Amino acid sequence: MISVYQHFLSFVLLFALSTSLPAENKKDYIPKLDEFPPPNTGTYIAGELVMVDPINRRGGLRLDGGGCGGLYHVGPIHQFVMLPYGMIWYHGAPAELRDIPIGTHLHGYLYLPSVGEEETIPPPRPYGSATSELRYVPKYNYAISLEDDFSFYQRRGQMWEIVSIDIPRWTIDEALGVVTPGDATQRGKLHVVSTGQAAKDGISGKYTFEIDQSTRVWKRRKPVELQDIAPKQIVQLNLTWTPGWRDREYCISDIWINEESREISNELQRRRHIRYQRYHWLAGWVDQVEHEDFGGGIVTITLFGGMDPSLYEEFKAKKEKDFDIAVAEKTLRTWWHNNDKKSGQVIEWKEIENPPPGSSGHQLRLKFTELLKGYRPGRIIRVRCDGWPNQRLSAEE
After folding, report:
1. Do residues 305 and 251 both lie within one domain?
2. pLDDT tens sequence across 326-357
3. Is 324 found in the same domain as 207?
4. pTM: predicted TM-score of the whole model, two decimal places
């Protein structure tokens, strides 16, 4: 289900995102509106997703605690916005913000705002008169990537091995409310150690997570009981809030205890992602416009990265037929893209080796008999290949 090609592309993206640079280069880079960021940039930030605007690709994180009461109790929510080429993963597959449930713990790499975009995210407000607590809010709020724990660790080659488990004798009937449960807030402990290649950021080594009756345990194609968790199992997991959040304590929301369960979760999210992209079309931007007589011209575009490889492969297989290009906003929203578009003939397809973060490496030159006003360098576009739906989306999209 998860192809070797897909793993290779993930490795390339991870190498570009994660390799360390001097701190001043990593932290101070400001993305430009018409170029992808250089490799090895972006500041690591993690927290629980507590608010989301999926249409405008924005949200807010309750930042991971570090033993600081001020950060946890009175520090404002850290608001973020996805860059147009920002990439999202959920359950190890590409995703949209709308796919990620509130309460999911996320890992991200973020930048300072672009020039002219400093006020896109409103300045944080302190709780009450605690203006000094604004120091806890990072100034990095433009995300190049966001991913849940499952994706973050699996794509970097890190898994978890169960060392031991301490749980009350809950049953699945109690957890599902079929019979009267005991104390739903009663918590157990899951002791783990990381295995495989340790992630550069995040958690590694020995750790203890909490579990309770809300924890979902996945084996093969179905949920099972907490008693199915056993020492020596190699697992992946997703985390969420627990009362000890301030001190970097986490509760496990989901745990996948065998490879089949992980592959199924990955495949289901991959299918959801492909469905979304087919209706909304692949995003990219305009690199160059060569104007010709009578309103026509040649437009060079680059498709954004982070999509399932099968989508790029399908585009390339259909490059002999015209592609539709619709103009979009920085949020990737379009204006009734079934009508507000033009069709162009692909005259060149170039694949860039080792593309920078946010880029797919697929650059196309298309010839149009008529250009739209929005076909300008740096502008965002959506691209449809032959056979994809060409239907009007709802007004808010």
Report:
1. no
2. 999 999 999 888 888 999 999 999 999 999 99
3. no
4. 0.86
